[in-house]
Write a sequence for this structure.
C-alpha cells in the first residue's frame, strides 16, 4: 500500500512541472486579450468623444446663426476675399450661402457685398452673378451694394456689376476686364536636355495646349476663339450691369485697372465710400452683421481631400479672368 502510494505521488509530482509552460502560455494569452480589450475600449471612448465634439460644434454654429437671424434691423455683410475658385473660401457655393442667409432674414435693411479679390474662375463668378440677379428679382425691396476694398479686378468686378450700386475707396484698384489663359512651353529646353516627350492620346486634339509639345497654329486659333467668347460674355455682363453709367470708351475693356477716383470718372463705380459709410448713410442701418459663410472643420477636411486628389491631375493651362 505505501509503495503504491509513494509511486503515485511521485508520478504526480513529476508531471506538475511539465504542465507549467502550458499554464504560463494561457495566462499570457489571457493578459494579452485583456490589454487588447482595454485598447479597443479606449479607442471607442475617444471616437465617441470626437463625435460628441463635432455635434457640439454643429450645435454652436446653428445657435450662432439663429442669434444672427434674431438680430434687430441691421445691414448684412457678405465678404468676397481672395481668389474666386471652387476650392477656395471665395467659392460660388460659399458666397451664395452667405447671400441666401442674409436674404432669409426679414430684419435686414440692405446687403453689403464687400469685395477684395483679384478675380479667378469665370464660371464661379458667373454663378454668383446669376444668383445675385435671381435673389434681387425675388427681393426687390432689399438693396444690395458692392463695396470695393483694396482690389476688385476681373472676376471680382464681374460679380460687383450685379449690385444696385458700386462703392470704392479712392485708392482701390478696379477693372481688369479681360480673360487670360496661361501656361508654359518647355519644347526647346527638352531638346537641349535630350528629353523625349511621349504623348499618347485618342482624339486628334486631346493634346491641346500641352506644355511639352509645340503650339500649333490650329491650337492657337482655337484658344483665341475660347478667350474671345468668354471675353464677349464678360463685356456683356458689365454693359448690362452698368448701363448708361459706363463711359463710352473702349479702353475700359482693355484689361487695365484704375484707381477708385479714376473708376468713378469712367463709370465703373458710383461713389466713394466704405462698408460702414454705406451701412450708415446709404442703407440707414449702422449696425452691420456678418453673414459671410465660414467653413466648419468637416467642410475643410472634405475640401482638403478633394484638393489633394485634384493636384495629382496634370492641367496644362489655367483659364481665368484676373
Amino acid at each position: 500500500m505505501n509503495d503504491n502510494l509513494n509511486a503515485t505521488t511521485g508520478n504526480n509530482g513529476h508531471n506538475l512541472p511539465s504542465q507549467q509552460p502550458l499554464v504560463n502560455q494561457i495566462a499570457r494569452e489571457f493578459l494579452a486579450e485583456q490589454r487588447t480589450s482595454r485598447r479597443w475600449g479606449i479607442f471607442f471612448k475617444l471616437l465617441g468623444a470626437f463625435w460628441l465634439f463635432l455635434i457640439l460644434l454643429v450645435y454652436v454654429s446653428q445657435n450662432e446663426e439663429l442669434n444672427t437671424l434674431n438680430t434687430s434691423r441691421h445691414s448684412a455683410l457678405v465678404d468676397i476675399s481672395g481668389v474666386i475658385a471652387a476650392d477656395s473660401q471665395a467659392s460660388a457655393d460659399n458666397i451664395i450661402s452667405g447671400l441666401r442667409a442674409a436674404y432669409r432674414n426679414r430684419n435686414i435693411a440692405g446687403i453689403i457685398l464687400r469685395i477684395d479679390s483679384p478675380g479667378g474662375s469665370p464660371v464661379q463668378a458667373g454663378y454668383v452673378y446669376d444668383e445675385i440677379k435671381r435673389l434681387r428679382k425675388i427681393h426687390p425691396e432689399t438693396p444690395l451694394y458692392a463695396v470695393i476694398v483694396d482690389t476688385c479686378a476681373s472676376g471680382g468686378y464681374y460679380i460687383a456689376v450685379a449690385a444696385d450700386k458700386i462703392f470704392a475707396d479712392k485708392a482701390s484698384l478696379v477693372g481688369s476686364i479681360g480673360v487670360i489663359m496661361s501656361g508654359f512651353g518647355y519644347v526647346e529646353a527638352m531638346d537641349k536636355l535630350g528629353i523625349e516627350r511621349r504623348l499618347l492620346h485618342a482624339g486628334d486634339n486631346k493634346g491641346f495646349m500641352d506644355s511639352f509639345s509645340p503650339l500649333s497654329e490650329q491650337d492657337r486659333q482655337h484658344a483665341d476663339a475660347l478667350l474671345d467668347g468668354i471675353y464677349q460674355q464678360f463685356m456683356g455682363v458689365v454693359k448690362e450691369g452698368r448701363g448708361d453709367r459706363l463711359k463710352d470708351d473702349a479702353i475700359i475693356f482693355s484689361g487695365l485697372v484704375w484707381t477708385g477716383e479714376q473708376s468713378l470718372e469712367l463709370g465703373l463705380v458710383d461713389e466713394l465710400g466704405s462698408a460702414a459709410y454705406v451701412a450708415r448713410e446709404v442703407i440707414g442701418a449702422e449696425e452691420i452683421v456678418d453673414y459671410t459663410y465660414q467653413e466648419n472643420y468637416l467642410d475643410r477636411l472634405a475640401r482638403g481631400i478633394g484638393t489633394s486628389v485634384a493636384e495629382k491631375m496634370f492641367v496644362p493651362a489655367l483659364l481665368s479672368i484676373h
User: Anything to note?
Assistant: Strands lie at 74-81, 108-117, 144-153, 165-168, 173-175, 180-182, 257-259, 271-272, 288-290, 318-320.
